[in-house]
Amino acid sequence: MNGQGRLAAWGIGLAALVALPFVYRDPYHLHILVLILIWSFAYTSWSMMGRFGLVSLGHGGFMGIGAYVTALLWNHLGLSPWIGIPISMAAAGALAMIVGYPCFRFRITGHYFVLVTLALSGIVLQVITATRDYTGGSLGYTPNRATGNKLLALQFDDKITWYLIALGVWLFGIVVWHWVDRSMARYALEAISEDEDAAAAAGVDVTAEKLKITLLSALMTALAGAIYCQYQMFITPDTVSGIAVSLQMVFAAIVGGLFVSLGPTVGAVITILLAETLRIGFGTKAVGWDNLVYGVLLVLFIIFLPKGILGSLLDRLKPQRKVPRAHEQEAVQIARPGT
Amino acid sequence: MGMQAFLDIFDIYLLEAVINGILLGGVLALLALGLNLIFGVIDVTWICYAELVMIGMYAMYFMVQYYGVSYFVAAPLTILLVAILGALLHYLVIAPLLTAPPINQLLATGGVLFVLQSFATVAFGIDFRNLGIRLPVLAFGDMNFSYARLLSFLAALVGMVAVYLFMTRTFTGTAIRAISQDRQIMALMGVDTKRIYIITSALGGALAGLAACLLVLQYDVHPFVGLSFGPITFLICVLGGLGNFIGGFIAAFVFAEIISLGGLFSDLEWGYVLAFAFFIVMMFIRPAGLLARRR
């Protein structure tokens, strides 16, 4: 597809997406679409750094901070989410810097990086649980209903408004993805993911480049958490934070494909529809069964279809494809420590 | 009540916390050893390691509480069960992915984490359960220590010594250590790497099983109990240097002290937060682990 055709396809697709809620109003289906859009944005945010081999399992922590800080500021200080969301994003960004700087400065890569970030999301979960006097602990937390201006409180009752907000946020994520894709930073980060020493020798500031993309990714993930909180009006540590959420992000991004802008979105569509089908299929009596099947499918998927669905599909569609770059052949190469 | 009396009481609590920290360190060291063993030999990280412990704790609970099996009969059975689970995990999930990118191995064990958690939820429900064994409390001067912790500490030490002897005194143990040094060359030396991997996984599982037998004495079992000591085990392994057994051992005690002393001033959860903050600081000082050789 040439550039103009691609642009036209995007335009038509977007117009159809914007028009959709005015034609089709089933509230349950709109709800699922809003969830898919919000989570797609979160997964896209994760893949911003994931595609460069920076496999973070700490994004559950950033998402939790986005959701909880926004809600806490609203309930306790009466601070509008319009101010609360930037503050929560700044908090998540600061945490990303505090953990990221020593990791990147001292070359903590591979398994080490995964485990450090994994611990980070575990700790954020612990903090939310420990401060149960304020956050409600594992029982969850509800932002107060707005008594005055709904727009100021970023609380809307109708699904169409939320659908359009989620669509805007999702589109923003895709635009940022493309912006990074066309920037110099992308080439620097690709070089880093292939060989850190060689990239450094070629004049790439490894630590700074990694920090920039990590900051961007963390800020966007916190925004996703805040939007999710405003939409659902109920958050628990398990649904917006912790290791399970982090794993869910990585899984969806891998399922859809890491190296395509719509990959994480496809991953979100597949995983959310799957989870929702399983949830309804098993009903409310069989608590846990849906997650059990989900987990088994996840393992089977990783073993038998490791390239991701969209990634494999695109490979099929382009038989005369150019030789893939080394980091794509290896999917995400986690360097062995000590090498 | 003068200032001096306050200080006296404080000191006793402090000493008690320090000793309790050492006792906690034993079990943490055991967990770190199992994870380190798997990492050092097979070069994979079992994200679901703490969930294997959780399954072991349920096994103990049901055997002791439900079927009336004696604790000391149930413990070896539990260790055997989790060892088999470890071997199965390797055979079914890790072995097909040995040549896959590391992120896929991580994700697959992450999937197993989901499976084990939801299996426990489906099979056992989300209630908190405990053995109902109330071991006496040992009074030592003004300080109180639970027998459960003392017993766990001693058993963890015995377990670690047993692993040490196995690794240094047997042919299989020597082969395991050799493989952790050079994965490619050992196959050429006539060592069956597949067999060694299965044995190592079973050994890692057995250590998780032993930890389960000890933790069930002190903590309630529920499907998400793994989340309360999984992350801390990962931090210990990274701080000690992945695959570095002695580093992991020392780091376990350092973390246990921080958690225990942090818990003295507030909740246990804040102890974890302190431990994480300490970890970040340590990364600046010794980025490649506590015992890293400077290159």
Explain how this protein is built.
The complex is a heterodimer of chains A (339) and B (295). Chain A has 339 residues and is an all-alpha fold. In chain A, helix 3 runs antiparallel to helix 4, helix 3 runs parallel beside helix 5 and helix 8 packs antiparallel against helix 11. The termini of chain A are far apart. The C terminus of chain A is likely disordered. Chain B is 76% helix and 3% strand. Chain B contains eleven helices and two strands; from the N terminus they run H-H-H-H-E-E-H-H-H-H-H-H-H. In chain B, strand 1 and strand 2 form a beta hairpin. The radius of gyration of chain B is 20 Å and the shape is globular. Chain B starts with a helix and ends in a 10-residue tail after the last helix.
Mean pLDDT of chain B: 83
- Determine the number of helices of chain A (DSSP H or I, runs of at least 4 residues): 17
Helix content of chain B: over 70%
Task: Supply the number of structural domains of chain B.
Answer: 1
What is the distance, rounded to the nearest whole angstrom, between the alpha carbons of the first and last residues of chain B?
56 Å
Structural class of chain A: mainly alpha
CATH topology of chain B: ABC transporter involved in vitamin B12 uptake, BtuC
Largest β sheet strand count, sense and barrel closure of chain A: none
